[in-house]
Structure formats: structure tokens, C-alpha cells
Amino acid sequence: MPDKPYVVDQMISAKSIAARIEALARDIEAEYAGTEKLVVVGLLRGSFVFIADLVRELHLPVEVDFLEASSYGDGMETSREVRILKDLRSPIEGRDVLLVEDIVDTGFTLSHVIHLIESRKPRKLRTIALLDKPARREVQLSADWIGFEIPDEFVVGYGIDFAQRNRNLPFIGKVRFTDA
Ligand code: 5GP
Ligand code: MG
Ligand code: MG
């Protein structure tokens, strides 16, 4: 499938993403005012660009940690089975945690990871997703903050891949296959 030719059509520009992150950062700062040190947890690998931009907009003391969960393999469909490939380095009991996800699609990944983190008794857990595809939801949940709601399209860029490609695009685009 990665061999099928495709192009990427821009859906959300780098400028729009930056503006949205600034607004989200102000909301998050308000929510966490007075927090000693927020633990910002990025879900690898898709959130790596988003978390990098988001933490640089946050005027708060933050610690950054990562968790890698996999549900997709190299395909375009969720396997509905979430595996933890890399766990957090820091204990989070009693801490304020912000979980950063790239996309909430069926909701399986976010719900699995929320349960895992909650089982470790953080003081407060909040979630943020850059993109939300509500049309495909199977587990009823949503992130506390969402960058953009998008239609049911397969997207890449800004950290998000198609079979490990296109993560380095500075914008979000949708995949369009070109073979006739
Ligand atoms: P869920 O468990 O909510 O179905 O899926 C969440 C994960 O599936 C996302 O974190 C992301 O890694 C992947 N995913 C969902 N939609 C897309 C998409 O349009 N493009 C890419 N590349 N990955 C997606
Ligand atoms: Mg993800
Ligand atoms: Mg992926």
C-alpha cells in the first residue's frame, strides 16, 4: 500500500496551526495556573511536532515525557488493539498531567492511555488532541482541548505519518491516491 502513488493536499496551513496553538496555550495556562510543574506527556510518534510547538508556547514550568502506544501498524485502519511500546520515565502519582495526542479517531487509543495514566493516580489529568475526527468515534470520549475538528479523511504531516512518511511536512494535508 505505501507503494501506491499519492499526493498530499494541504488541509490546515502551518500558520493556522501556529495561531491555534497560541490560543490553546492561553487556555491551558489558565487551567494550570499555580501548578508547581506540569507533566506534559506526548504520545509517540505522531504528537512529537505538536508537543514541541505547544510546550514552547506554554509559559508554565513543564516537564516533558513520552509514551508510545501503537494501534495502527503501517496501515490506514485501526487494529482496535492498543499496545504500550514505551512507557513513561517519571512517576506521575499526585502530579498534574497533560496528555498530548495527534488525532482522536475511533477513540480506542486515547481511552486506553487515559485508563493507564489514571491507574497511576495523577492529581489531575487533562487531554489535548491536535485533530479530532468525531465521525469515526467508537469509544465515546473527547479530548479536553482540540486543535481542529476534521472530516473523515486520512491526514498526514506535522508529525503524522503514512507508513512512516510525511511526518516532516509543516502543514496538515490529506492523502489522495493518484493511480487511475
Ligand atoms: P484511534 O485509536 O482514535 O482510532 O486512533 C488514534 C490514532 O490513529 C491516532 O493517534 C493516529 O496515530 C492514528 N490515526 C487516526 N486517524 C489518522 C489519520 O487520518 N492519519 C494518520 N496518519 N493516522 C491516523
Ligand atoms: Mg497517535
Ligand atoms: Mg501512525
UniProtKB/TrEMBL annotation:
Stated family: Belongs to the purine/pyrimidine phosphoribosyltransferase family.
Pathway it works in: Purine metabolism; IMP biosynthesis via salvage pathway; IMP from hypoxanthine: step 1/1
Record SUPFAM superfamilies: PRTase-like (SSF53271)
Reaction(s) this enzyme catalyzes, per UniProt: IMP + diphosphate = hypoxanthine + 5-phospho-alpha-D-ribose 1-diphosphate; GMP + diphosphate = guanine + 5-phospho-alpha-D-ribose 1-diphosphate
Subcellular location, principal: cytoplasm
Stored InterPro entries: HGPRT, Hxn_phspho_trans, PRTase-like, PRTase_dom
EC numbers: 2.4.2.8
Annotated protein name in UniProt: Hypoxanthine phosphoribosyltransferase
Organism: Salipiger marinus
Upper classification of the organism: Bacteria, Pseudomonadati, Pseudomonadota, Alphaproteobacteria, Rhodobacterales
Keyword set includes Magnesium: yes
UniProt GO molecular function: guanine phosphoribosyltransferase activity; hypoxanthine phosphoribosyltransferase activity; magnesium ion binding; nucleotide binding
Cellular-component GO terms for this entry: cytosol
Location of the Phosphoribosyltransferase domain: 14-162
